[in-house]
Amino acid sequence: MRLSFGLEARQVQVQKLAPRMIQSMEILQLPLQELQERIEQELAENPLLEMLDRDPSLPDEQVERELPNEKDVDDKPIVVDEAHNNADDFERLLNLDREVPDYFDESRRSSNRMEEDSDRAHDVISNVADRPESLQDHLLHQLGEMDLSLELMQMAERIISTLDPLDGGYFRSSLRDLLPIDATKEQIALAERALALIQQLDPPGIGARDLRECLLLQLTPTMFMYEELKTLITSHLEDLRDNRLPLIQKSTGYSIDRIQKAWSELRKLNPKPASGFSEAFVPNVTPDVAVVRGEDGQYLVQVDESRTPTLHISKYYRERLASGTATPEEREYIKRKINAAQWLIESIEQRRSTLTKVSQAIVDHQTKFLDEGPEHIEPLKMQQIADKVGVHVTTVSRAVDDKFIQTPRGIFPLKRFFVGGTQTAEGDDVAWDIIRIRLQEIVDKENKQAPLSDDDLVEELKKQGLNVARRTVTKYRQKMGIPSSRQRRDWSKT
């Protein structure tokens, strides 16, 4: 083998994605709200791209979509010399001795455009949420009403800063971590006093170091079954979790009925006292696709285009490019911006076409789901839709990613309709969702004095023609939050 340095020419085949294809894939993957933001960004960056003012009562097919003439714009992207300052070129364009187009004159904007801009600004202001009171603010406000020394107040503030509402408001740190390495006994005692002070504040249970302490902090001597609750929390939390009521009965001498009553009172306590101060993020879901039933009873898919503006390329710049009066620098700038605008318009149209075909194929496969409910969903893989539509499976994945569909049965993510499955004893395919529904039905109807084990659940599913492994039953039972047979047992009648 000879090693050497040198240059050589070789012919190899390399697959590369054109910029237009990359943009088309990016646009396809965007949900409706992000697509709107992308269009607004492009409108701000590209002066040749405009929104078409039209009568909203006209259907989309009657709207003229203006695209550049082939003789004006080359098929390939324009390469602009980076030595030119494009910003300066554009400034020169705007300062030409010419009549300013209507859309640069604010006074000539249509009444519809002005009304849309006003509504958009009003919506932005209306949707600004008030800042809720944080957990730290709530606790510090209570401390401010107390007569505390400066040292105690500072230590309490330091502890409060470590409380996380997402963690329920527990004190997970160590007091020694908040003190100097060479802390004195007086400083340690001060920290313990500060923590005890915080644990007396609202909400009850705040600042607890574990669940047991959190629940004990919420007890008051006037509560119903106070002594029983204190005993259960102090010594038998794990036994309650595992439903070992006979063991608690033997240890405490309480009857099963008495333990269950105390357990019912225990459930009224809050294991996460600060949960009310954590902002619950509820995403704003805007369906990209809607399903309607046609006159023939078939389900038809409609992509929502009412929220996306109709785009076209500035007629003024196209005419200037065709007139031959533009300088070479202006011509290069206009052609590059026209290419960018045309790519965007075509990508949006391609997104609409692909999303329509993919969604219609999904709806056609899941007709039983729409007719009879979720328990009749059919097994479906993305490859099946890709084969039916005639695209690559990654295109289907991008088309359904983070998008929602509005159906007569509610709004669902498009990915909801892709489910795995297994075969029944008769050889029919059945979705895992159906197995989960049947599993829940069996558990709901079982005898709670003798609940079914996982092996028993497997046998019950087999009686319904569903062959499922025991490990699969265990996995879905745990995912569904169904306790084990021992934890589901009702001891009240034993």
TrEMBL record:
- Provide the RNA polymerase sigma factor 54 core-binding domain boundaries: 126-317
**What is any Pfam family matched here?**
Sigma54_AID
Question: Does the keyword Nucleotidyltransferase belong to this entry?
Answer: yes
- Keywords noted in UniProt: Coiled coil, DNA-binding, DNA-directed RNA polymerase, Nucleotidyltransferase, Sigma factor, Transcription, Transcription regulation, Transferase
Database matches in InterPro entries: RNA_pol_sigma_54, RNA_pol_sigma_54_core-bd, RNA_pol_sigma_54_DNA-bd, RpoN_core-bd_sf
Molecular function (GO) terms listed? DNA binding; DNA-binding transcription activator activity; nucleotidyltransferase activity; sigma factor activity
Q: Which residues form the RNA polymerase sigma factor 54 DNA-binding domain?
A: 332-489
Question: From which residue to which does any coiled coil extend?
Answer: 25-52
Please provide the Gene Ontology terms (biological process) for this protein.
DNA-templated transcription initiation
GO cellular component, alphabetical, reads: DNA-directed RNA polymerase complex
Give the UniProt family note. Belongs to the sigma-54 factor family.
Specify the protein name: RNA polymerase, sigma 54 subunit, RpoN
